Amino acid sequence: MIGVACVLTGWLPRGEAIANMRRIGPLLLFLGSVIVLAELARRAQVFDVIAHRLAIIGRGRYPALFVLCVAFAATTTTVLNLDTTAVLLTPVMLALARPARIPPLPLAMTTLWLANTASLLLPVSNLTNLLAADRIGLDATGFAARMWLPQLVSIAATMVALWLWYWRRGLRESDRYLPPAPIRLAGARERTLFYTCGGACVLFVAMIPVLGDRIGIAAAVAALIAVAGFAIADRRALRWSLIPWRLLVLVVGLFLVVPTLSRYGLADLMRALIGTDAGPAQAYRSAAAGVGLSNLVNNLPAYTAGEAAIEPTHRTALLALLIGTNAGAIITPWASLAVLLCLEFCRSHRVRVSMFRFVGTGLVLAVVATAGAVTGMLIID
User: Fold this and answer.
1) Which of 179, 205, 238 is nearest to 77 (CA)?
2) Alpha carbon of 298 to those of 229, 251, 338: distances in Å?
3) Among 158, 84, 151, 100, which Cα is nearest to 376's?
4) Which of 202, 309, 329, 355 qualifies as a cystine partner to 335, CB 3.0-4.6 A?
5) 291 CB-near residues (< 8 Å, 6+ apart)
6) Residue of 97 and 320 predicted with greater confidence
7) Which residues on neighbouring strands pair with residue 61, listed in sequence order?
């Protein structure tokens, strides 16, 4: 409502509002489609089968399970997208907790943090990466060449933080967990839905390298396949509530409100925070500004606001801003869509997340991961 008011009152010119909506159109298509795909895949027990298999491979050893979960979350974030990881992987982690008698919070935090801190390597890893790669003219290879060390540093910092605050021995009741039995799909209907939705997820992954920045199309095609499967085998599961209306409205509102604020002082503030002199100092200031604004409003509009304050020739500062808005967007519940999605899944699964602990641990990790990643980028620059 606030975003619409900005346009109706003329605070944000209609032409600029239309341009912003066109820019985020692929984001809205991707977000809506991938959540529908994830929800139907969950109903088809795709996540449950994967969760049980992870626990079986770990053989009751928490360190092994920790490494498996970190590798799974980091890989899906890097190859797919942080919001995809939040939607597809969070249910996997939470589904793993009950049969294996594992506290669900460490599993949820693994997904939540790595969905953000492991989203630095490729343009497809984060929608802000796509915006940045287009701005500075880097293809996937060139982008990865600049960001491989920041990615490694960010993941390493996340692993240390996860183990220290959520996974270590003193925070759990037992030394081992109970590996569950594999899930057996009973009837033909269950098998049909499982293979249809599982195949749709695999197709989604396979289409990403082909379609590049048009991942919204990949998500829409995969979602339509899953919908078709349920239309044939279980039509009652198809409801309008599958579409995340509230999140889509939130994203639209953010991309109307933040540009309005930029016209009335935010852009000047970002220029003052980031500075104009190219060099390491500007890189660290850009990253810090990205962390701060992401946790105030959300990382997507934070990146666009910071991008407008950086000269196109200052590539290092722009990538440092990107690191701040990616790895640093883990302090507040609204810092990124991935955080919002993960916390929403926690709420629906009745997993209690202490906001005091969430903010405190997220603040420390955001500072360490962002500073370390920027330093790594400067080393290979």
Assistant:
1) 205
2) 35, 9, 10
3) 151
4) 329
5) 324, 325, 328, 329, 331, 366, 367, 370
6) 320
7) 176
Nearest one of 78, 169, 92 to 125, comparing CA atoms: 78
Q: 176 φ, ψ to 5°?
A: -135, 155
**Do 112 and 358 touch, CB atoms closer than 8 A?**
no
Specify the long-range contacts of residues 276-283, CB closer than 8 Å, at least 24 apart.
Answer: 276/311, 278/311, 278/313, 278/314, 278/316, 278/317, 280/378, 282/314, 282/316, 282/317, 282/320, 283/316, 283/317, 283/319, 283/320, 283/374, 283/377, 283/378
In DSSP notation, 140-167 reads: HHHHHHHHHHHHHHHHHHHHHHHIIIII
pTM of the model: 0.82
The C-alpha angle with vertex 177 and arms to 172 and 180, in degrees rounded to 5, equals 145
**Burial annotation 348-364 (CB, 10 A radius, 16+ → b, else e):** ebebebeeeebeebbbe
Residue 89 · residue 73 · CB < 8 Å: yes
Between 107-116, 194-203, 267-276, 308-317, the lowest mean confidence (pLDDT) is in 267-276
Question: If DSSP codes are grouped into helix, strand and coil, which group holds residue 61?
Answer: strand
Tell which residue, 259, 291, 289, 258, has the closest CA to residue 274. 289
**What does each C-alpha distance from 271 to 13, 317, 368 come to in angstroms?**
22, 12, 24
Closest CA to 362 of 191, 162, 200: 162
Tokens of residue 187, six digits:
């009837």
CB atoms closer than 10 angstroms to residue 366: 26
Task: Mention every residue, 6+ apart, whose C-beta is less than 8 A from residue 115.
Answer: 73, 77, 82, 83, 85, 86, 89, 336, 338, 339, 342
63-84 average pLDDT score: 86
Portion of the chain with pLDDT greater than 70, in percent? 98
What would the DSSP string read from start to end of 269-318? HHHHHH-SS-SHHHHHHHHHHHHHHHHHT-HHHHHHHHHHTS-TT-HHHH
Q: What CA–CA distance (Å, rounded) separates 246 from 244? A: 6
CA 81 to chain centre: 6
